[in-house]
Structure formats: structure tokens, C-alpha cells
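Priority: low. Protein: ABC-2 type transport system permease protein. Input follows.
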Amino acid sequence: MNGNQPPHGAMAQAPAMGAPQMYQQPMPPGGQPPVRQLAWQHLAERRASFLTQVRVEFRKLAGTISDRILLIIGPVVLIGLSVWVTSIGERLESASDQLAPAVWLLRVAAIVLHAVLIKLIAGEWQHRSAQPTLLVQPSRARYFLAQAVVVLTVWLFCAAAQIAVTFIVTPMATEPTLGYLLDYRPGWVIGVLLLGSLSAVMTALIVSMLIPNAAGALAVYVGVVPVLTIVSGVLPEVFIWIDPLAPAMTLAGLSPVDNPAPAFTSLGLWLGLLALSGWLVSRRDLA
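Result:
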């Protein structure tokens, strides 16, 4: 036999060209023969990276036609409403008065984009779409962090849009005789709008986690936001103690109470609700 030729039968044992690669574990002593795996099965068992999970959550954000429509309408409503209210608002002599329309808009301008977040988070549990995600990677902490990246991205977009509108439209709408004052304290303006926008998106997040039904959570959120707006105008001294925007209003100098106590009370209340809703979601049954 030629030394360059393989032994008899080796050609039959060699895998055919283009055949799927097989992975086989060594047989344990006294155990059953190992199960042979295809290459794609071996890759499927590898843990997905956190970046992959984040991309999956962004895909879910625009997973349906209604989600895509809301994602298109949301920025239009946010920017259009902000421009309109900021341009028609009264411009008084103080910087707080000039910032007041932008702070008031924090409650309502981003309601459409908040609705997309509510559909994503509440709908996960209503339709059990969280189940396959957690079966692929069972860590709920990584799952929550991936969704948190989506929430923070929406928050930063909303805040950036409202900040831009405030700095562009307010000077044009201010009476020349009164003088435009916000450009003297840009850091203060940005801080107020970032904090207020974060408080608004946190409210939507709490509603979506407490109510594991997309339609129910949307109904509650869309119904509560106008009520909060009305109550804040009718009973400002009382409502400020539980208003999620109390910290931003206090920082802006627009609080109806002259001390910062309502801001700390409101912040503690809503952070407590956020912690409670997170705890409930972490123990929620997937079945």
C-alpha cells in the first residue's frame, strides 16, 4: 500500500465537502454517547453580547407598523408643539418667566414618544415577548439594562429637542424691550430641561412597569397627564408636593412654594415608585 494514501475506509469516514461541521464531546466514563451538534447549534448556545441585546430592544421599539407611525409622529409633535407654545408664551422680565413655557411643555410635548416606550415595556409582558428573550439569556438584570439604554436614548432625544427649541425660539418671541435673559445662564436652562424631561420619562416608565398591559398602561398615562396638568394649575400649592416635575420647577424658580421641601418629597415618592415597579417586574412570572 502506498504510504501517501489513507488507510482503507478513511475516505468513507471523512466528512463530505460542504457537509455541516459537527461538534462532539468526549464520551463520559460509563455514560451515554454524547449528542452530536451542528455548527449553528453550537453558536446558538453562546451567550449573546450586551450590544446584541440592546439592538434587539431597539428593533422591538419599531417592531410594528403602529410603532413606526408613532416614532415618525412623535418628534413632529414634540418639536411642533414646543415651537408653537414657546412662540406664543408671554415674556416677562425674569429669566424664570421666560423659561416657564419650556418647563410647562415637559409634561405634554413628548407624550407620543413616551407612548412608544409604554408599548415596548408593557407589551413585553402582555404578549409574553419577554419570554424568548429571557430564555436565550436568563439574566433579568441584563434585560433591564438593555431596555434602560432605549429609555435613556429616548430621554436624551426629547431633552435635546426641547433645549434646542428653547434657545432658538425664545429669543425670537421675546419683546426687545424686555430683553432675552436665558443666554446669560445656559447651563441652568439645560439642567432644568434635562431634569424635567427625565422626570417625565420616568413617570411613563413607572406606569408601563406597574401595568403589564399596553392598552391599559397607555389609557392610564394619556388620561393622567392632562389631569396632572389641570390640577397643577388649579391647586399648585398642594399638587407640587407630589408633582413629578417638582424638582425641575424648583430649580427653575417656578415652584408655588418658597422652600425646596416639595422637590425632595416628590423626588422620594417617584423614586420609591420606580424601585417598587422594578421589584415587581423582577418577580413577574413569565408563564
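Residues 48-229 form one domain. The chain is about 65% helix and 0% strand.
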